[in-house]
Amino acid sequence: MDLKQYFYRLTPPERDSFARRAGTTARYIQCHLLTQRKIPRPALMRKLVSASGNAVTLDDLLRHFYKTRPADLGPARRRPASV
Fold this sequence. Notes:
- Helices cover 54% and strands 0% of the residues.
- It is mostly helical.
- It has one domain (3-71).
- Helix 2 crosses helix 4.
- The radius of gyration is 15 Å and the shape is elongated.
């Protein structure tokens, strides 16, 4: 489920509880994460997944912040050796 959709389905007290379980605040989530002003570090992404009871998956978060899925990134490319 999309992070924004999940968050706005919660009541204000549930938002506070969700944020607390993730180690942040509802205000931080609303101001910075939902608006994509900041991209959380992997540790916070894992905490958001856990705090949502896996309703929001890591794949959902990657789509939200990067507008893509891990499989869409394709294989890693090697840089050509510099001369």
